[in-house]
Amino acid sequence: MAPSEERARELLAEAHRSVGQLKASDAFEPAKEALQIFRSIDDQAGAAQALRPMLAAQLERADFKPDEALKFVKEEAGKIKRSAKDGRRAEALMQLAQAEVHLAKAEAAKALQMAKEAEIFFQRDEDWPALADVLLEVVAPAQLLRGDGKKALDAANLVLDVAQKVKDPEVEGRALALVSSSRFASKVEDGPVAARKALSIFRALGSRIREAATLLDLARGYLGTQDSAAHDAAREAMAVARSAGSWSQVGLATQAVVEAQLQAGNPQAALTEAEEQLSLLRQGSPDKSRQQGIASAMSAVVVATSALRGVDEGLKAAKRFVEKLREEGNTRGEVCMLHKLATMSPFPDYALNTAQVALVMAQKAGLPHEEKALKKTLTDLYVAQGKIDKAPNRREALLLLQDLGRELEKKDGEKFDDASKNLDGYWNALTQNDIDATMQKIISRDPPAYLAFLKAHGANAEVPGEKKATEMQGAGLQGKIGQLKTGPLEHLYFGFRASGIAYGPRYRCNVLPTAVGGEVMGTVGVLQLQDISDDWERELQYNPSILDCALQAGAATSYYSTNP
Fold this sequence. Notes:
Strand content: under 5%
Helix content: over 70%
Order of helices and strands: HHHHHHHHHHHHHHHHHHHHHHHHEEHH
Radius of gyration: 25 Å
Number of helices: 26
Distance between the termini: 72 Å
Strand order of the largest sheet: 1-2
Largest sheet: 2 strands, antiparallel
Number of strands: 2
């Protein structure tokens, strides 16, 4: 190895360490220098490897907006000489870089699609470090983002196998952290066990920011299971993050502590904690990390205020914070607080206008995750007003519905399940006619075969005995829950939608609806508020979403009992 190449490899390793330790900004200079060296010696694969941490740094520093980063990486991918000796590997590395940018844009499905060929290539080539990168940086996080805990767990477990081959403790620790998050997401036991193993590794490595991130994930997992251990995990995360100077994590930990206190029925303690942490975060130079922490702590104050003193007082606090964040030039914080105002306001027009302002700000500032969340809220608001054609998610929902129809037509089970999962969060942007136009014409070609396929994939659809295929309710897609049998919950709501009942995200609270033995009209429904529900909604003693959802499993079983 020539001295220049050896130097480039050292710089590349330094850049990757910075990204792995959640300090992407620090990766810019070594990655840039490594890129220059690799290009000077015509090493395409090396240049592709150096581009990845450099892009991560530029995105974190806001040198690039995500759309600009994607355009740049596509242009670089087009320059690869595929006929060269390292051409195929360089191409796979550029596919990984594009997948990472798609994930930064909150486009989980596109990220997975782009990463697929790279994963196959690295696995076939036994390039274990690169395979670990694909799984750690894209596949598992993307599956978690789209809500598929099982597939995220499969990817994380595969990384654990790869970690034994690369003998890298950081890879093992990150894989274990993902295993923990995936187990919590898929409601599998032993999530805390994997997290504790990851914490031991990060502590041994001295990686305080990774330690704090794992503790935060552990706290969120405990919160999802209503476990009182959430408070201790969040407090520990806060202490570790503060010692590392990671102020954005301090803010996130504050939110977790507040939610844990509210779950325990301690709203006064929650508010006291939130106000104290906000005050501490304000003591210091307002760098980007501190700005993010301040915005998160303000959000925690609003939630705790709403729980203790009522929603009106929470709204007042949110309005004050919007003005303060605007004065400080904290655009991300202002966008998030405006979104909170939109979800809390009792006035539809005000909520709509506020969310629209926040969406424009998010788009201009290049904040893809905030943009995605705001589009969901605006879609809910437009649907509630009967103006579905104005819903920002409608176009994407129609495209996703077409994807679902194509996979149904081909009877490709795995791709059908993926297409169905991709529609989560988009069903309320579709109408009865949309579903009929896409699905019914396919099912009518061979009703028994297509309905059998749907039943095998959780819809439990049947042709009512006295009706023709063209007269079936929603093409026979009404979800029917059999005795002690469950299926993917998206099919339950797909069934309601196909029958003309358009439940939005806040009214999809069934976690595990199950018919009870042979009892007529008997059900057990396990209910849980969706993530889209704002924090103040969770504190209502009688939440309208939960009350409605309590009837849904019974309605589905009633349909089953009258259509055996």
